[in-house]
Structure formats: structure tokens, C-alpha cells
């Protein structure tokens, strides 16, 4: 399993609900930001004119809330590089406390929306 630098994200007021807690869907936005941060660092684009890596499955357990002003840390791990897909594991933390954790799968698709094999140049970087 390949692990990457931690992505840090401060919780904005607009991300919270009336209880002052980050809405669950925003947590997944933070995770997607972290995924793009990792991929950009590897020079593997999440989306280009010829295709990209949309999510096809997400599994997330919410453990502890994040609130306005909190500094979240998102750790990404690449669990599997398949012929057409990537399986990621993520952990969202506030200091040592786990806020959320889970997995998601992305599939490489062409600009026509059809799944294709991950380009060999990307595969070489990711494996």
C-alpha cells in the first residue's frame, strides 16, 4: 500500500450545518481535494481532455465531528492499482482523533465516458 504526504484543510464556516458541524458531504469534498493533491504531486492528472478518474464507489464511516476553524488532516493511501481502476483508502483526522475513514474507487474513463485501461505512463507512476 502506497502512502502519501498528508493534505491539510481548514474547515470553513460555509462547510458547516446549523449545529456547527461539517456536513457529511463536505468531508468527501475534502477527501477529493486530498486525492487531487496527491495525484498532482505525482504528475498524474485527475482529469484531462482525453479522460480522467471519476469515482464509482465510496464507503465512509464518520467517527467524530469537525467544526468551523478545525484543521483537518487527510491521509491518502493507494491500496490497489487495477487495469482500469484505483482503490484508495483515506483517513480524516483532527489531531489524533479520527473524524472519518473509508475507501473509494475511481475508474479511468475516456472523454466518451467509456472505461479504459489506465495509460501505461500513469500506471508506472502509481505502482
From TrEMBL:
One of its GO terms (molecular function) is fatty acyl-CoA hydrolase activity. Keywords: Hydrolase. Transmembrane segments: none annotated. Pfam families: 4HBT_2 (PF13279). It comes from the Bacteria. InterPro entries: 4-hydroxybenzoyl-CoA_TE, HotDog_dom_sf. Belongs to the 4-hydroxybenzoyl-CoA thioesterase family. This is Uncharacterized protein. It comes from Rubritalea profundi.
Amino acid at each position: 500500500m502506497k502512502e502519501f504526504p498528508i493534505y491539510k484543510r481548514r474547515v470553513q464556516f460555509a462547510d458547516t450545518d446549523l449545529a456547527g458541524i461539517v456536513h457529511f458531504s463536505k468531508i468527501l469534498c475534502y477527501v477529493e481535494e486530498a486525492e487531487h493533491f496527491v495525484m498532482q504531486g505525482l504528475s498524474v492528472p485527475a482529469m484531462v481532455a482525453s479522460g480522467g478518474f471519476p469515482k464509482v464507489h465510496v464507503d465512509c464511516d464518520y467517527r467524530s465531528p469537525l467544526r468551523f476553524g478545525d484543521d483537518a488532516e487527510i491521509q491518502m493511501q493507494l491500496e490497489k492499482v487495477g487495469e482500469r481502476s484505483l482503490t484508495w483508502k483515506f483517513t480524516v483526522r483532527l489531531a489524533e482523533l479520527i473524524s472519518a475513514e473509508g475507501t473509494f474507487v475511481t475508474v479511468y474513463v475516456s472523454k466518451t465516458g467509456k472505461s479504459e485501461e489506465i495509460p501505461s505512463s500513469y500506471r508506472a507512476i502509481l505502482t
